[in-house]
């Protein structure tokens, strides 16, 4: 059902919006300004303003009353056009209008000495990233090269530059950093995160604990993921555990996102999560991986990686999980060692190659003695097993003192 709006009603709605905007700027009321700038979600004004502008098209006449705020008159016109385009699902046009309004706002923001408008700036930063993603999807559908998210990243870097310093605005830098991380991860340009991280972690004007908890959790989540990609599992464990321990326990979706990367890290450090944890947070793809490690079952690990290959590749953890094969071999040897110890404790530390070959064959893994020798040498080199290899006797002689050293890792308890 079409609802018709009179010219008078349209004028009233737009005037009301412009007046609220002007009042928020004049009184430096960031809380009042923030909802006026929302576009993509929870926008209390978008539909009303977009409908009104369809009827009352002379925006410039309305915004003359904000001329005293210089750039903000132009900014407001573009922001209203953005609302109109977004409401019509023309996301490329909406992005272009938002880009113009956001640059105008940033120019004024730099001149304000206090941090009163930081929350409003957060909204602009969020909307720039979100609309850029939507515009890129529209461009792909139209057969064009999607480049708006890259442009949003450039704008966010300008915002970051305006926040880095000794003033109160610096507390906004971590939020913008997290939005930049989302852009870079989406674009696959994670190497660009490094320069931003250096600014956050090396600048003496920053005290990390001063930042809002929400931003600290997001920051540690993304920097933890970066450490996973670089195989720095101890650093990844520290960062992702920080994110997990400080995450709002009510935000189960966020906890699941953290665990999705923390679990491969824990497994790499020799910590096996409980199955109830995987069930609770719907991380079922890890169940057989954990079972394989627990049992020393190489066949089960390979099946688990194969069955969930696409998902693990998308997450970027496939190679991490693939490297768990060495731990599975270690646990298999440990099981053989325990069985031999029950039969004859004095000879348990001598594990014959042909026994390992038979165990693997039972698991439908076809390896000859030479291949098993190579695996044993790697286990000893990586300190997953203490002992030495007797090539002549085809025997691994395990140390009688702690033959299977524990890896360094602490349990995960969200």
Explain what this protein looks like in three dimensions.
The chain has 414 residues and is mostly helical. Among the domains are: 7-159, no CATH class; 325-398, Arc Repressor Mutant, subunit A (Orthogonal Bundle), CATH 1.10.10.10. The chain is built from 21 helices and three strands. The protein has helices at residues 7-26, 30-36, 46-55, 59-62, 71-87, 91-109, 118-141, 148-163, 173-187, 193-202, 213-229, 233-246, 252-268, 275-280, 287-295, 298-307, 309-315, 318-322, 325-343, 353-362, 369-381; strands at 350-352, 387-390, 395-398. The protein has a three-stranded antiparallel β-sheet with strand order 1-3-2. The longest helix has 24 residues, at 118-141. The chain starts with 6 loop residues before the first helix and ends in a 16-residue tail after the last strand. InterPro entries: Csn12-like, PCI_dom, WH-like_DNA-bd_sf. One of its GO terms (molecular function) is double-stranded DNA binding.
């Amino acid at each position: 059902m079409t609802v018709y709006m009179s010219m008078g009603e349209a004028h009233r709605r737009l005037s009301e919006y412009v007046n609220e905007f002007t009042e928020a700027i004049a009184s430096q009321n960031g809380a009042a300004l923030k909802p006026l700038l929302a576009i993509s979600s929870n926008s209390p004004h978008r539909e009303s303003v977009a409908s009104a502008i369809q009827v009352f098209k002379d925006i410039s006449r309305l915004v003359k009353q904000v001329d005293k705020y210089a750039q903000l008159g132009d900014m407001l016109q573009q922001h209203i056009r953005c609302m109109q385009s977004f409401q019509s699902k023309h996301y490329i046009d909406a992005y272009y209008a938002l880009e113009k309004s956001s640059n105008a706002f940033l120019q004024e923001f730099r001149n304000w000495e206090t941090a009163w408008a930081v929350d409003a700036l957060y909204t602009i930063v969020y909307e720039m990233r979100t609309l850029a993603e939507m515009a890129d999807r529209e461009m792909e559908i139209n057969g064009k090269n999607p480049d708006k998210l890259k442009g949003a990243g450039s704008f966010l870097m300008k915002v970051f530059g305006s926040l880095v310093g000794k003033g109160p605005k610096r507390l906004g830098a971590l939020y913008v950093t997290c939005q930049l991380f989302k852009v870079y991860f989406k674009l696959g340009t994670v190497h660009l995160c490094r320069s931003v991280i250096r600014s956050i972690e090396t600048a003496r004007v920053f005290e990390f604990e001063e930042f809002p908890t929400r931003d600290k959790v997001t920051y540690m989540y993304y920097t933890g993921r970066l450490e996973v990609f670089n195989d720095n599992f101890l650093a990844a464990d520290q960062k992702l555990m920080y994110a997990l321990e400080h995450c709002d326990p009510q935000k189960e979706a966020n906890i699941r996102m953290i665990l999705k990367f923390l679990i491969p890290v824990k497994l790499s450090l020799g910590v096996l999560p409980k199955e109830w944890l995987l069930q609770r947070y719907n991380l079922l793809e890890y169940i057989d991986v954990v079972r394989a490690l627990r049992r020393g079952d190489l066949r089960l690990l390979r099946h688990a990686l194969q069955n969930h290959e696409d998902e693990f590749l998308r997450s970027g953890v496939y190679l991490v999980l693939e490297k768990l094969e060495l731990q599975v071999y270690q646990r298999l040897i440990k099981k053989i060692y325990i069985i031999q110890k029950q039969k004859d404790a004095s000879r348990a530390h001598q594990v014959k190659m042909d026994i390992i070959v038979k165990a693997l064959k039972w698991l439908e893994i076809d390896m000859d003695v030479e291949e098993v020798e190579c695996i044993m040498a790697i286990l000893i080199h990586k300190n997953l097993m203490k002992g030495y290899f007797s090539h002549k006797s085809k025997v691994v002689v395990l140390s009688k003192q702690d033959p299977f050293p524990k890896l360094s890792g602490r349990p995960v308890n969200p």
